[in-house]
Amino acid sequence: MEPGNADPSAALAGWVTETRVAVALGSNLGDREASLRGAADALVDFIDRLTLSSFIETAPVGVVEPQPWYLNAAAVGTTSLPPRALLEQLLAVERTHGRVRTVPNAARTLDLDLILYGGAVIDEPGLVVPHPRVRGRAFVLVPLAEIAGDMVDPVTGETIGALAARLGKQAE
After folding, report:
1. Is the pLDDT assigned to residue 67 strictly greater than 90?
2. The domain that contains 63 carries what CATH number?
3. With bands split at pLDDT 50, 70 and 90, how would you rate the model's confidence at 103?
4. Does residue 169 fall inside a structural domain?
5. Which positions are catalytic?
6. Confidence (pLDDT) at 116
7. Which of 8, 71, 98, 164 qualifies as a cystine partner to 145, CB 3.0-4.6 A?
8. Are the CB atoms for 53 and 146 separated by under 8 Å?
9. pTM of the model
10. How many CB atoms lie within 10 A of CB 24?
11. What does the pLDDT read at residue 59?
């Protein structure tokens, strides 16, 4: 190749796409606020331009045994990780914060759920995006709408803001 005529594939080799993602954060054991803040600090290692919502306190949903109330938040940013690798990072952060998986809906020190991965719809063993129950969960939609009401649920085509508003009206 002659000088001055760069190989275009070489330029593309270093090009990494970034995908906008949404993560739900929750904790109902221990120092809940410290757990959520610690998780947000860890998320910046693999999610760029992270924005964290306000914290909201909510009653446990879908539990059999009595549990302490949750502190919930949402985080939005961009990542170059593929969905499965992002999920693995989220699970690692949970473990670092003392999460032990016993039974479904058990109380937990930290819960991180991948809610949206760009406009992707994924249904694989252990990875479903958008999160399958997001449309009925105010504790996810309200904080997410606060920071990213413009994000679109790729299944319904509706914005997070519209989903949160409709869920709020159903509760009235």
Report:
1. no
2. 3.30.70.560
3. low
4. no
5. 99, 108, 111, 113
6. 97
7. 164
8. yes
9. 0.86
10. 23
11. 86
